[in-house]
């Protein structure tokens, strides 16, 4: 594998910000942006055309007329135009960071220089498909509890808006003592949510809490990712997914001849987890000083132990690229099994939560009903006649 001086100099320029992407425009709206499936197909078809001997610009021109997503097709056309003007592919790709992150363009550059562009495109397609598969499994697992919780709150709202008011109106003429306990709370809550400001106030509180949580995550991303990583199931799962993605990119960069001191920051740049990215940035400084990258990573206890152990083994044996290849396969398999296990464990948890919500709604109503029934009995009103006649 060639690691010539021009390539190293270009990568150093890229890392220092001299070659930072000048965006070709604003990111497309979410509803028109290409999906992961579209991006995977783009990489896959691009690899086929390169393997068939098509030049880069011509391959992108073919993709411009083949890809179904209009925005991604237009992006392929712009890449072709940029190539025809004499600029390299990886530089053109960095102008569209919403599709091609820095780690992808770094892999493309390294593979182009080493003559294995088709292989790198296949790898990127596999990587995007794997991420899509994991996200799909997580979305399916989370959608079930979301439906159960929504149904539980819907049942509570039906009780507050329709059941309790109907029940209360039938008792309006009865001479009952002042309601206490659960009955008083249920009737007061029902009266409140049916006022003109009841529902808007509840929605405002929920929106304020959601915005506050979102704002806190945006301003304290590292703290939120660190706390999330400590959660026993879901937090570990997300951290494992980001770690697996980092290992994939670092392996591809080292495989195509990029030195570790330059490959490591490029791979870390594409990591979305702030906690993991801070840990990797600390290891970048260690590697730049000629020390081991693993020593600094050991100070971050949330990282998967097998990740640290195999990295240390690869550094000690001087076989880091080969070790990363095995680690990549292991982490992918472990991630898939962890997602499946999470889906299985989530179902009984959701049933318990959903059952608790439904039980709370039912007990609130029946407790209110029996309290009112006891009051009717105390004042001598026939329970079968709400008016007492």
List the helices and strands and how they pair.
Layout: H1 5-16, H2 36-51, H3 56-66, H4 70-84, H5 89-93, H6 102-114, H7 117-169, H8 181-193, H9 198-219, H10 221-229, H11 234-255, H12 260-269, H13 274-288, H14 293-297, H15 305-317, H16 320-378
CATH topology of the largest domain: Receptor-associated Protein
Q: What name goes with the CATH superfamily of the largest domain?
A: Type II secretion system (T2SS), domain F
H/E series: HHHHHHHHHHHHHHHH
Query: Which architecture of the largest domain per CATH?
Result: Up-down Bundle
End-to-end distance: 97 Å
How many helices? The count is 16
Oligomer: single chain
Could you name the ranges where pLDDT drops below 50 across 5 or more consecutive residues? 1-24
Specify the overall morphology.
Answer: elongated
Count the beta strands. Answer: 0
Q: What is the makeup of the main sheet?
A: none
The amount of beta strand, in percent, is under 5%
Q: Which radius of gyration do the C-alpha atoms yield?
A: 30 Å
Report the top-level CATH class of the largest domain: Mainly Alpha
């Amino acid at each position: 594998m060639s690691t010539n001086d021009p390539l190293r100099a270009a990568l150093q320029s890229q890392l220092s910000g001299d070659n930072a992407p000048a965006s070709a425009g604003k990111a497309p709206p979410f509803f028109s942006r290409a999906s992961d499936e579209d991006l995977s197909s783009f990489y896959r078809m691009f690899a086929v055309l390169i393997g068939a001997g098509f030049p880069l610009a011509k391959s992108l021109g073919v993709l411009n007329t083949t890809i179904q997503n209009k925005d991604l097709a237009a992006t392929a056309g712009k890449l072709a135009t940029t190539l025809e003007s004499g600029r390299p592919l990886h530089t053109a790709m960095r102008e569209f960071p919403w599709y091609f992150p820095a780690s992808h363009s770094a892999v493309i550059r390294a593979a182009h220089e080493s003559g294995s562009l088709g292989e790198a495109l296949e790898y990127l397609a596999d990587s995007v498909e794997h991420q899509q598969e994991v996200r799909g499994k997580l979305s399916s697992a989370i959608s079930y509890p979301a439906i159960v919780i929504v149904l539980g709150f819907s049942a509570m709202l039906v009780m507050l808006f329709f059941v309790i008011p109907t029940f209360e109106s039938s008792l309006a003429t009865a001479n009952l003592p002042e309601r206490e306990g659960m009955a008083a709370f249920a009737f007061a809550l029902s009266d409140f949510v049916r006022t003109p400001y009841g529902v808007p106030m509840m929605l405002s509180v929920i929106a304020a809490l959601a915005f506050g949580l979102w704002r806190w995550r945006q301003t304290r991303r590292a703290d939120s990712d660190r706390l999330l990583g400590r959660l026993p199931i879901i937090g570990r799962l997300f951290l494992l997914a980001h770690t697996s993605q980092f290992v994939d990119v670092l392996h591809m960069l080292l495989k195509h001849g990029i030195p570790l001191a330059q490959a490591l920051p490029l791979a870390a740049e594409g990591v979305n987890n702030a906690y993991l990215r801070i840990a990797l940035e600390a290891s970048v400084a260690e590697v730049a000083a000629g020390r081991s990258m693993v020593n600094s990573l050991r100070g971050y206890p949330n990282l998967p132990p097998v990740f640290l152990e195999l990295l240390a083994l690869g550094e000690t044996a001087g076989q880091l690229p080969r070790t990363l290849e095995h680690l990549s396969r292991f982490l992918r398999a472990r991630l898939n099994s962890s997602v499946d296990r999470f889906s299985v464990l989530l179902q009984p948890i959701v049933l318990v939560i959903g059952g608790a919500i439904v039980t709370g709604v039912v007990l609130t109503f029946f407790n209110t009903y029996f309290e009112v029934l006891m009051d009717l009995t105390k004042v001598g009103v026939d329970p079968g006649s709400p008016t007492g006649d």
